[in-house]
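Review session, final week

We close the course with one last complete record, chosen because it touches almost every idea we covered. It is LemA family protein, a protein from Candidatus Sungbacteria bacterium RIFCSPHIGHO2_02_FULL_51_29 with 190 residues. Go through it on your own first, then we will talk.
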Amino acid sequence: MGKGVIAVLGVLGVLMLVGIIGVMMFFGMYGTAVRMENGLEAQYKQNQNNYDNYWKKLKESAQVPDMYVADMKSVYDGVMRGRYGAEGSKAVFQFIREHNPQVDSKLYTNLQTTIVAGRNSFEADQKMLLDKKQIYLNYLQENPLRGFFLGALGFPRADLAKYDIVTSDETQRTFDTKKSDDIKLRNKPQ
């Protein structure tokens, strides 16, 4: 074999190696983009799951004080009827004064704990979604060649606006107006 043939075979070998590496990089980029989009969708579903769980806990927990008051009333009504008859007596008012029925403040403390814990958990999931979206956008945009190839393959395939966080009208208004007012926990008497 002559030096020319060896040189041609060497160049072909290098080109083939570059081609194989290029194809492997191409499949790697494609696979990474698919995993990132799937991760966004999975986190979005987790956010829905978390919010649904929080909302149900809150609604169910909020029913407990009403149930407690109704049960307490039923018990007191039964005690009064049993002790003083269907017509009752003036001693009922004395009994109530003496025993002064109370709604246990722990019911409200537990409800407040449910609210705070649910909000904190949902915030953590929202942050995770934002982080995943940012990482994916960086992956698509930080390398122009990668962005070109992935764009040619149709990435991003997902509507990334779908993965914006859940917020409130009040928050949206605050960011639109660039003004934040004090939070009033109670209305002042007029």
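Two points worth writing down before the exam:
The mean pLDDT is 87.
The chain has five helices and no strands.
Good luck, everyone.
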